[in-house]
Amino acid sequence: MKKDDIVSLASRAKRVSEKLAVLTTAVKNRALTKMAGALTRRKKLILRENEKDVASAKRRGLSSALTNRLHLDEKKLRGMAESILSISKLSDPIGKILSERRRPNGLLIQKVRVPLGVILIIYESRPNVTADCMALCLKSGNGVILKGGKEAFYSNRAIYHVLEEAAVEAGIPEGFSEFVPADHEAVRALLGLSGVIDLVIPRGGEELIREVARISKIPVIKHFKGVCHVFVDRKADFEKAAAIVLNAKVQNPAVCNAMETLLVDEKVAVVFLPRVAQALLEKGVEIRGCETTRRILPDVKSAEEEDWYAEYLDLILAVRVVKDLDQAIGHIQTYGSHHSDAIVTEDKKAARRFTKEVDSACVFVNCSTRFSDGGEFGMGAEMGISTDKLHARGPMGLEELTSYKYVVLGNGQIRR
Amino acid sequence: MKKDDIVSLASRAKRVSEKLAVLTTAVKNRALTKMAGALTRRKKLILRENEKDVASAKRRGLSSALTNRLHLDEKKLRGMAESILSISKLSDPIGKILSERRRPNGLLIQKVRVPLGVILIIYESRPNVTADCMALCLKSGNGVILKGGKEAFYSNRAIYHVLEEAAVEAGIPEGFSEFVPADHEAVRALLGLSGVIDLVIPRGGEELIREVARISKIPVIKHFKGVCHVFVDRKADFEKAAAIVLNAKVQNPAVCNAMETLLVDEKVAVVFLPRVAQALLEKGVEIRGCETTRRILPDVKSAEEEDWYAEYLDLILAVRVVKDLDQAIGHIQTYGSHHSDAIVTEDKKAARRFTKEVDSACVFVNCSTRFSDGGEFGMGAEMGISTDKLHARGPMGLEELTSYKYVVLGNGQIRR
């Protein structure tokens, strides 16, 4: 797309967003219901378009993990429709009074939730992101500009058209979402439009996200990577610990909330490690251990310093035996990415210290890091996950796509 | 300061901030009470240091408005102490559970408020900012790096030393706040320390703020300027309207929440304008009017296009007669700075449309824009005012200096 076309597309999105900001909850929810229905009703079209992306991925020799992420079927479409329906059932954040204060001079000061305006999402791979983002932005009264990856172009375009059409038929202003083809120049032009676009959320590989953060003139919310830890404390229940470690590593190793490093308290390492290692090896996991780990598990490879920083996104696990809770927290603060970290322990005091002192977006006690997800958190879906501290942290749902304004109601008050 | 010294100062602030994050409310409040006491007890020292700044301002021929902003007296010191005390009385935001959800699988998902970390404030002129920021950051568990203006160096340094000493005596870790002398290179070095400093808030003239926003690698929250409007609707109570207009323009014209443009509905302009103009002229205000205004008030100067964008910060007022509420809103959206805008009307529907459609941080009904202030909003004081939409908007108090984390409590749950 030409730069002028991009500018007019974004300006149109801005104008439309003013109308989205004042839509009633009923209109938005009805549209979301229609959108969910359209997704299943028009599955043939979407699956046919998806086949083109999958065929092209195979032709280009993409790994089967990546091809699987692209591939859509009826079950995945139903999942997308269910996400949209669950978003329609969440309470509308817009117009909500967040706090209200009556001042001694009689002024009533209300903090009221409002949409951000226009949100640009730049994403790779999974086509469900298209549906999730359209639904979340509509419900939160924001315009959205969708820039998906080249590899999912046909799928994303089909989903976009089906959902946009259904929403407009249900009374949503045309252009509530805009679709931008994968095109490097278009992205660069979009990222210069501060004052028109209010927020950029990049989702994908670390390289993509660093590039967006570097060139954007618009505020960016992001996470670069997920180097997630599970710490098995000396007071851990081994049954729970083994299940959580296995789940966090193998249930879906290619995602940002999968565990990359396992930390085990030295008091229990000799008993716990052989037990969990067996299960991990059976699932095809390669273990890279510290010296102590290798004394307990002599057959595993040695972990180097860079392994502690690594986001493998694969069936590889770094394992380190630590002296105590303090050293575990220290390791996470030093090498982690402030994304999602878990402790397994029956000791409430250790759990409390871990959740207080580990400075990550999500801290888990006795459950898998894989729960770090908007859907699992009850947000219906997510626009992304943030490891930033400003504005939004962790999975971003409806509330995280809003701002607020102060409305001050008086009766002639002046300042003395 | 040398770049190495700046880096170690900021790193020290980061380390100390970890201790500040876990201070109890009681310890913080006791320290704030001591700080307020120290400010009045050691007034002689502070006023003597302040005299140096005032003398130097006079030598350099600063305007009397600027010299007045610098000048401290017992009354101003008492006001600063009262701000600190009122912050000690506000509820502690840290550790507060913002929301809590039990998921069908039994997971308890808590959103918990945490400090941001280290905040850098870059400010000009008024020395009370030093005290306000130290108190707000301490209560919200953040470290703070203070970089005040050269013109207030002696005052800021004295206030800093008195407050830091009192806080440390009361059990706050040394270095909870850091004082950086005015030095261009030091600021540049600080603004590069993303990952160490978590947020920058620039306060001062538009030029300073643009420069900080341009070179900072750290997130910045800011407002560039305050082009604030009062709109007198056709259903306005003239008595209230006249009082509000006068207050918004003359009570303190040099600040960002002072009115710069008056909009009057054409239905009432002939009656209202002569009445308010008389009062404004008596206060020495220069009026620059649109054509219709000049038909009603033939002696006033003509307003040019650039007057609608102007932040005079002086006894000058642009006046425009508008057709109706729509045109008033349109004018504010086109020329305003999204800071603070007021409507005067007895018509509830007009008030509601104005508060919904004017996209400003603070919208006022029947009161002065001068209330756009953390203290007036009941926040004790403010770290600044934001016209950004991300993270914080309007006056920034304790809550706006925090982030949150998710704490997820399970009992062995894994993801299916």
Descriptive overview:
Two copies of one chain form a homodimer. Chain A is α/β, with parallel strands linked by helices and 416 residues long. Chain A folds into two domains: 233 residues, 3-Layer(aba) Sandwich (Aldehyde Dehydrogenase, Chain A, domain 1); 144 residues, Aldehyde Dehydrogenase, Chain A, domain 2 (3-Layer(aba) Sandwich). In chain A, strands 10-9-11-8-7-12-13 form a seven-stranded parallel beta sheet, sandwiched between helices. In chain A, helix 15 links the parallel strand 12 and strand 13. Chain A is globular, with a radius of gyration of 24 Å. At the A-B interface, helix 10, helix 15, strand 13, strand 15 and strand 16 of A face helix 10, helix 15, strand 13, strand 15 and strand 16 of B.
Short key terms for the protein model shown above:
416 residues, four-stranded parallel β-sheet, Aldehyde Dehydrogenase, Chain A, domain 1, Aldehyde Dehydrogenase, Chain A, domain 2, alpha/beta, 44% helix, 20% strand, 16 strands, 2 domains, seven-stranded parallel β-sheet, homodimer
SSE order and pairing:
The structure is a homodimer of 416-residue chains.
Chain A: H1 3-20, H2 25-41, H3 43-59, H4 64-70, H5 74-89, E1 97-102, E2 108-115, E3 118-123, H6 128-139, E4 143-147, H7 153-169, E5 177-179, H8 184-190, E6 199-203, H9 206-215, E7 228-232, H10 238-250, E8 259-265, H11 266-282, E9 286-289, H12 291-296, E10 301-302, H13 305-309, E11 316-322, H14 325-335, E12 340-344, H15 348-357, E13 362-367, E14 385-386, E15 394-395, E16 402-413
Parallel strand pairs in A: 3-4, 3-6, 4-5, 7-8, 7-12, 8-11, 9-10, 9-11, 12-13
Antiparallel strand pairs in A: 1-2, 2-16, 14-15
Helix pairs in contact in A: 1-8, 2-5, 2-7, 3-4, 3-7, 5-6, 6-7, 10-11
